[in-house]
Amino acid sequence: MDRLQKLAAGSIVVGIVVLGLKYVAYLLTGSIALYSDALESIINVVTAIVALVAVRTSAIPADANHPYGHHKVEYFSAVVVGVLIVVAALTILREAYFGIMAPKPFAVSVEGLLVNGLASVINAGWCWVLIRQGRRSRSPALVADGKHLLTDVVSSIGVLFGVGLAAATGWAILDPALAALVALNILWSGWGVMRESVGGLMDEAVPENTLGRIREVISANAEGALEAHDLRTRQAGKMTFVDFHLVVPGEMPVSSAHNICDRIERALKDEVDDALITIHVEPEMKAKHAGIVVL
Fold first, then answer.
1. How many CB atoms are closer than 10 A to CB 3?
2. What is the membrane topology noted in the UniProt record heading this document (predicted)?
3. Closest by CA position to 274, among listed 231, 238, 234, 243
């Protein structure tokens, strides 16, 4: 099990611990808002399991049926996470609606609030680890899981404040109203996760700053060639795919053109981690006099 898989597995353990703590907090108070917080933690555990499956699948080497690897499965998992987040939000909205229609007093328990606060601290620390390591390793599944946990942390802080306010003022309706706000925040998080994942499934190009670096590397390492054009990029999980046409003099030997391609590939892989590069060599009659000028 590699580092990413261990992080994904760790999310399951953390999710179960946090779920237990938040459910205890709900039992101690009877608060609908704390119940909604605990309900979201169930989704956290499920999304952590989905992330682990995705990370394990994406690590499978390329084969005859998947010559470009299995990296895109992480985007599918992130979409699933987004859908589960939306389902959780709708469930919480349902509970909040009934609570607003018939507000019920709940017991003020300092212990319950402290238990919920401890769960939030654990979540905050773990979501920081997931987002940091997920971005470093370019793992959409781990980043999506971390962002969902971050939303959970923000929601929990709001819940603790609101429950305390409801207890201080005696306004029982604040409890379900706060649960509804938590649900809306979760819905926004789910939309964000799905939007980013769909972008990956649609083969979006690399960011502009990365594309600029790729162009500079090609230009600086294509000595002997005439130009490069039709540069295309896309990302799939941690993999970056780069392909372009390289124009060389018509009389250049194949071995010399191959050496230029090797030099460019080495430079690109030094600049962009986990890059898969495809170069189509063309004679000078195919030059477009546009694209990347060789320095």
1. 10
2. Multi-pass membrane protein
3. 238
Domain with residue 262: its CATH number is: 3.30.70.1350
Shared-domain flag, residues 269 and 197: no
pTM of the full structure: 0.60
Residue type, 49: I
What are phi and psi for residue 31, nearest 5 degrees? -75, 130
Cβ 261 vs Cβ 246: under 8 Å: yes
237-260: pLDDT as tens digits: 678 899 999 999 989 999 999 999
DSSP-H helix ranges across the chain = 3-29, 32-58, 73-101, 110-136, 140-169, 174-201, 208-221, 254-271
Range of the domain at 145: 3-201
Distances (CA, A) of 145 to 108, 127, 155, 212, 237: 32, 8, 15, 30, 14
65 plus 103 within the same structural domain:
yes
Q: Which positions ≥6 away from 290 have C-beta within 8 Å? A: 227, 229
Q: What digits encode the pLDDT tens for the residues 78-94?
A: 777 777 777 777 877 87
Amino acid occupying residue 52: L
Q: Identify whether the C-beta of residue 276 lies closer than 8 Å to the C-beta of residue 240.
A: yes
